[in-house]
């Protein structure tokens, strides 16, 4: 069944509704739509429902609940149900419990937060939410700067946004990180695939830069005159230019005319007696 837009329902009933987007100080920062308002409300309701489920659970039970959500989200991702996977991954993040010690916090980050955030970034790539993908990868890299998946996915997001320099840096770092792995880890198919894909992106970026450089060189070449009838700097240095010779000729012609007008006696031939 086709989903009906809330905007369409309101229009068909003759209702007029204006929705504005505001910041934390309730200052209007732009327009919004009724569907966006509904989606935000549904997301808030889902978060509240998740919180009611987990608020009384102990840390170990929360971790198990979050792990189950993660596995469910992974299956949805494999089935290419990306929006549903995003919801499950988001639920998982709500249930994270970092404990009371640094060791517990680190364990939660490495075994749940990091893989969930990187997988959520992959979902954002699939749904063309490139800015959100970059933000999630930034979070993942703040947990583990050597996270190859986060580095590669951030590079892809930058590349799609035509942020070539940032993308190139991430792809170069992806290749470097894979090359720095232990031989057993380096031989893993996932790491080899990431390195191969990063190398393909790098080749494309380098080719594009060469083409752009050649184009700019032709546009701003100094050894070629801007107009075909204007001499270059080299020809001007070697002798009088065409324009200068023409100007001298014009001056001589004008001088002769003036002489004929104001000194006619100089132009009259002498009579012989």
UniProtKB/TrEMBL annotation:
Keyword Aminoacyl-tRNA synthetase in record: no
Keywords: Repeat, TPR repeat
SUPFAM superfamilies (UniProt xref): TPR-like (SSF48452)
Protein name in the entry: Peptidylprolyl isomerase
């Amino acid at each position: 069944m086709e989903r009906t837009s809330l905007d369409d329902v309101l229009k068909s009933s003759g209702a007029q509704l204006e929705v504005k987007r505001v910041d934390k100080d309730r200052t209007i920062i732009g327009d919004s739509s009724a569907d966006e308002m509904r989606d935000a409300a549904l997301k808030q309701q889902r978060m509240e429902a998740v919180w009611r489920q987990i608020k009384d659970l102990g840390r170990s039970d929360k971790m198990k609940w979050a792990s189950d959500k993660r596995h469910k989200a992974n299956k949805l991702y494999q089935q290419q149900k990306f929006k549903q996977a995003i919801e499950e991954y988001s639920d998982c993040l709500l249930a994270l419990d970092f404990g009371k010690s640094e060791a517990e916090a680190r364990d939660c980050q490495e075994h749940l937060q990091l893989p969930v955030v990187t997988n959520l970034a992959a979902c954002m790539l699939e749904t063309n939410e490139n800015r959100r993908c970059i933000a999630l990868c930034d979070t993942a890299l703040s947990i583990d700067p050597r996270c190859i998946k986060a580095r590669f996915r951030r590079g892809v997001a930058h590349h799609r946004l035509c942020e070539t320099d940032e993308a190139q840096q991430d792809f170069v770092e992806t290749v470097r990180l894979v090359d720095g792995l232990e031989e057993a880890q380096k031989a893993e198919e996932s790491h080899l695939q990431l390195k191969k894909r990063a190398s393909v992106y790098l080749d494309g970026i380098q080719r594009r830069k060469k083409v752009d450089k050649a184009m700019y060189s032709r546009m701003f070449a100094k050894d070629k005159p801007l107009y075909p009838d204007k001499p270059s700097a080299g020809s001007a240095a070697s002798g009088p230019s065409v324009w200068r010779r023409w100007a001298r000729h014009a001056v001589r012609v004008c001088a002769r005319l003036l002489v004929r007008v104001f000194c006619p006696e100089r132009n009259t031939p002498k009579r012989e007696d």
